[in-house]
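> Could you send the ABC-2 type transport system ATP-binding protein prediction when you get a chance?

Sure thing. Input:
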Amino acid sequence: MIIETEGLTKRYGRRRGIDDVTLGIDQGEIFGFLGPNGAGKTTTIRTLLGHLRPTAGRARIFGHDVTANPVAIHRRLGYLPGEFGLYDRLTGAQTADYFAHLYGGVDRGYRNRLMERLGVDPGRRFRELSKGNKQKVGLVVAFQHRPDLLILDEPTSGLDPLVQQEFHALVREARDEGRTVFLSSHVLSEVEAVCDRVALIRDGRIVRTGSVESLRDLAHHQVLLRFAGDVPVAAFENLPGVSDVQVTGRTLRLRVGGPMTPVVRAAAAYDLLDFESREPGLEETFLRAYQAAS
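Output:
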């Protein structure tokens, strides 16, 4: 395995950091680390990188203990922190060159293609850039030496949708070349779009690990139907994917997992005053996963 953790724990005095995080990430996979802000994603990453010393447990990357041999690990990885920053007076190209020298040089042609694909202006100084443009420079820095492992903390933060799509393509290309990507995010749809496997973290603890397909039972819609007359409960409660059916007056609330088509077809047979459908927020999704794991 490329990354292995066993009971990894980090506490700040009495405050929670992460608790008993156990993961195994194979070569050539895109692994999503999904959780709301404050869940422990960054603490886990900083502990993996040796920036924080664990309170308990252990972590290994490329077979090396992260606290014993960090130099051997860092030679082979690319890292994008949640807030990428460097010297304000350096241009984008100079920032990339600075890190390239740390790795003994890079393929400048590949580096230039990365800048073009991500829309980086190599001549603008870092202090002149927006958060999204700083993030793009950080992605170039992380990818430019074609590392065996990419550790990316909220990599699409501040990026516009077109650049996000280009980033997803770069991540898939890295995987196709046999490299490994560890990607943290609080966006469920992003992890679903690009990752092979995923771990869900909440309040510093892993609550679920599995394939992206195994997350699909968490994806659901909350549907509200207001009828002009009596509520036809029987027409909806046995439909595929429908659960948590509740009636209040002439309003029907239900949870729908999977396709919405059966509900829409059933509703079309009645006189409706209103039809609302919404996806739950990430915190709500995680709360459901957390309760299911308890």
